[in-house]
Amino acid sequence: MSLKDKLPGQLGFGTAPLGNMFRNIPEAEALATVDAAWDHGVRFFDAAPLYGAGLAEIRLGEALSKRKRDDYVVSTKVGRLILDELEDPSQRSMGEKGGLFEHGNRNKIVNDYSADATLRSIEGSLKRLKTDRLDIVWVHDVAQDFFGDEWLSYFESARTGAFRTLARLKEEGVIKAWGLGVNRVEPIELTLALDEPKPDGFLLAGRYTLLDHASALQRVMPLSLEHGAEIVVGGPYSSGVLAGGQNFEYQQASPDILAKVARLKALAQRHGVSIKAAALQFALANPAVAAVIPGASRPERIAEDAAAMAEKIPAEFWHALRAEKLVADNAPLPYGA
């Protein structure tokens, strides 16, 4: 059974914003956003301990506690362990990028991909999510963008710890699937080259979008199909810059990125296409992609995502996108454009 067969649909909900990413989100607004996702048919929710030091999981668990557990799929991540010890909120960081969750919980987070930490992380997530089981578990951010030149040592720790532990939990029926949740393609390539138990799929954030897809297209998508390990696309709006924001790669977008966004939006406007629809449907056109999980922290954004999935985009738009070299020549497009 493929990863796509384990998911309840192609549109999921990424909960990083519920961890107070970039801003202090009122509790009622966060819970209402999850309710809006549910009301629009979303049944796949992705979380992580890192998101606000457990805040996103707590909020998601509260919102879903009134739902039947068999009616939804939830994924979370291991590799970042939340401690009882508190830290100065001004020191809150996300790997090397800093500051994303400064408004989250104050609990200290440590990087630990060992077998013991994996089990303790899962136990903590179960409590925060108010559930008795997890469907999918991703190994979180074991890549160079967070650990620099030391990333391979962290990867090795994950290989001998988290990978083997999650593979065993799947064999025992405790979880349905496991894989990596990363922002870079290199850990996926390395994982698929291993002889040890293979993951069921990957959550790849920010690397298969209208703005940035060349590396994934060349190095990950064909391998994923070959190994039967499909991709869940996270960050389909490229940290928000495709959806009206100013951030790309979790920081202020460069002039070059903003110029490309302007070209994409101008082309979409000429064809009467919403940029969100173009972004989501572009990602889903690749046969290696099982689902997309845009994030949101306001209920109205969920309605926009649902409408974007259903929007009819003329083939002429995709042909123009190709003609203006705004997508790679070999990127699969809807309608075979």
Automatic annotation (TrEMBL):
Domain of life: Bacteria
Domain annotation NADP-dependent oxidoreductase: ranges: 11-322
GO molecular function: oxidoreductase activity
Gene3D superfamilies, per the entry: NADP-dependent oxidoreductase domain
One Pfam family here: Aldo_ket_red
Cleavable signal peptide: none
InterPro entries: AKR, NAD(P)_OxRdtase_dom_sf, NADP_OxRdtase_dom
Cellular component terms per the entry's GO annotation: cytosol
PANTHER family: GH17980P-RELATED
Protein name: Aldo/keto reductase
